[in-house]
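Q: Structure tokens for this one, please.
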Amino acid sequence: MANHSQFSFQDASSPIMEELLQFHDHALMVALAICSLVLYLLTLMLTEKLTSNTVDAQAIELVWTILPAVVLITLALPSLRILYMMDEINEPDLTLKAIGHQWYWSYEYTDFKDLTFDSYMIPTPDLPLGHFRLLEVDHRVIVPTDSTVRVIVTADDVLHSWAVPSLGVKTDAIPGRLNQTSFLASRPGVYYGQCSEICGANHSFMPIVVESAPLAEFENWSSLLSS
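A: Here is the predicted structure, written as tokens:
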């Protein structure tokens, strides 16, 4: 999760988030190159003496037409690749249904019988020592590590958004519509998120907590909860 005075992204905990961070760095380097070129040209124009030499109009027009096209291609190709990776869901190991309410989340493990629960934020007076205020819930989402999890997202009342930054997941929850996304937690840990769509007075009080655990621990947890 994010730390105090942190300016960068959270540490990536899924392959998709790693790709997003690499594309972010790539786009920043392209922007830095453009800004450096523009600054150099501005400095050159302000410091050099005016001369009567002129550049051939056809040559300069060719340059300022082709160069922006090349820049856009260097940004578009990696972006399209990541978009296809985010939409591609091949044979998920687990399917999770997240339903947004005002103001809590309901979860259904559709691969198991009677494995459903509601997830509410723990109020500050009841918060255990060492847990995060406004981020901890009474029932966490437990998923197995290194397993593809398909998440079906919908809402019961108004618009919500199921978002976990460390996993690179953000999907709108729309009443009467099913949206889906997927993620793969690459290492065990606890990942925090929040509803990212303004959904009413208590919008900031419906956090999301995803815990990635080894497969054996996940099976023990699911058998205890469903029994």
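A few notes: The chain has a mean pLDDT of 89. Residues 15-47 form the longest helix (33 residues).
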